[in-house]
Amino acid sequence: MMTAFETWCQVVITFLKLSLFSIGSGNTLLQAYHQDAVDRFGWLTTRQFSDLYGLAEACPGPSSMLVGLLGLGAGWKHGPFWAILTGFSAEFAILLPSTIVMLIATFYWNKLRDSPWRVAFERGFGPVTLGILCSVSVTVLKTANHSFVAYCLSLMVCVLVLRTKISPLVFIGVCGLAGVLGFVR
Asked: Considering all CA atoms of the chain, what is the largest pairwise distance in Å, rounded to the nearest integer?
């Protein structure tokens, strides 16, 4: 078992590295978060990861809130002090490098307004981001769904969201009710 300090270092280094790859939003890294937190380092179980993801998405605020919760989960076995320190450090580590890169990019973006490099960059990252988000969707389905009924409900919601103009809040409410009533776990 790692010491509290080693766990803290592991969390900070992991999220510092991941910070530079968050193209589009923090959710684009969900698959990497799951792989590191569950498979690689064993900070959490898949079920805990799924619960923390649901909690982070239910709360108002940035999608990076999940990172703080993952850090909290990683440090929890060492006590509340280390959990809080690791949670804040994880959030800081995921936000600092990408924020610095964005500040630099914003400064130069207008200067490159007419550059063919800027146009190519903007057009090229659309499909990349879409592919990453599709991968994230598969990760969410695999971690959140644990029964045939849950998979069917997810498929039905996907189809209805794409084919109708019904508010996603309705689907959130229906799925939450299905969970409360015990149809899905």
From this structure: 57
Q: How far is CA 124 from the centre of its chain?
A: 22
Comparing CA positions, the residue from 26, 17, 28 lying closest to residue 129 is 28
Which pair of tokens denotes residue 8? 């803290």
Instruction: Check: CB of residue 15 under 8 Å from CB of residue 67.
Output: yes
Task: Enumerate residues 6+ apart whose C-beta is below 8 A from 89.
Answer: 8, 11, 12, 71
Those residues whose C-beta lies under 8 Å from the C-beta of residue 47, and which sit 6 or more positions away, are: none
Provide the 3-class DSSP secondary structure of residue 25.
Answer: coil
- Kindly tell me if the per-residue pLDDT of 120 is higher than 80: yes
**What's the pLDDT at 147?**
79
The pLDDT value given to residue 25: 66
Range list of β-strands (E), the chain: none
Q: Which of 51, 53, 55, 89 is nearest to 71 (CA)?
A: 89
Which pLDDT value is given to residue 70? 96
Element (H, E) at 92: helix 80-109
pTM: 0.73
Rounded CA-CA distance 177/99 in Å is 38
Give the integer Cα–Cα distance in Å for 99 and 8. Answer: 22
